Amino acid sequence: MRSVTFSKASLLLACLGAAFLPPAVAQTPQPVATVSGTPIYEEDLVPRIQSQLLQLKNQEYDLKSRALESVINEKLVIAAAMEKGITVEKLLDEVDASVPEPTNEELQSAYDAQKEQIKRPLEEVKDQLRTLIKQSKAQDTRQAYFDSLRKQAKINISLKPPKVEVSYDPARVRGNPQAPITIVEFSDFQCPFCLNVYKTIQGLLKKYDGQIKLAYRDFPLRQIHPEAQKSAEASRCAGEQGKFWEYHDLLFENPKDLKSPALIMRAATIDLDTEQFEVCLNSNKFTTSVEEDLQAGMKAGVSGTPAFFINGFSISGAQPSAAFEKLIDAELSKPVASASAP
User: Fold this and answer.
1) Which domain holds residue 227?
2) How many domains does the chain have?
3) Looking at the structure, do residues 227 and 128 belong to the same domain, yes or no?
4) Does the structure show a pLDDT above 90 at 89?
5) pLDDT by residue (tens digit) across 15-56?
6) pTM to 2 decimals?
7) What gap in Å lies between CA 33 and CA 241, rounded to an integer?
8) Is residue 128 part of a domain?
């Protein structure tokens, strides 16, 4: 092989040449359309579709995340099968073999839960129910096996969900104001799913005491929850007297009647000045503020309630505690940084 050598002078000239290369020129944005010679750029479209774009990014992340989980499980199973000296099919057959047959009690319970939809005697559908229950158990057993393999493996996931900067009102924050984790909740006092997740959030505040703070923002779904708007305004009137969270809890713990007379009666139960409260509620003074929360939520991609942002990472719907804990633990494992600013 012929060797190639460079003199010190030639190397110096090469370095000097590189040093005097013109800097890279930023590409000029190209218009996507023109109207009577006036250009329209992509950045002009963003304010109109920002909410939908964020939803698409979240959907893209969900698809990639599920695909990634599947690929990781596949690789772990292949490695486990190779270690045992058997095929993947044989290994999974061994896992499936541990699935117990459904008991009569399980069959009866499954039948009772769907009896109105089935509309046939248990004996006629017992075989189908047995198959469905066993399939469900097999899925749970495989997932438990995958989880056990993951605990033994060294896995580093770099795929991150899209992050959104969401502001909040410091006057409606529960927990340690300096906590490293900020949960911003967009909610509706008349929403049954928000009621379901209320206790989940209460549990998280206790479990991560001092490590998380909860910021509440209104997102009344007025088309389907006609009393949500006035309830949101009522909570602001309570906040005006320094008892936002007491009133917030009262509404979620007693959600049946949210009309104005009942809202005023509730104010008395937490020792608010009811006359001041009623004047505030009837004045509509917080209508604009509630609307501002709603618009901020839409801008952040919120389309329904409840919706949460944990340090900017989105969780939609009444998810189980584990879904929140996964994100919270991931954030807590990061290098210490200053708490999120409103």
Assistant:
1) 170-330
2) 2
3) no
4) yes
5) 444 444 455 556 788 999 999 999 999 989 987 887 788 888
6) 0.70
7) 53
8) yes
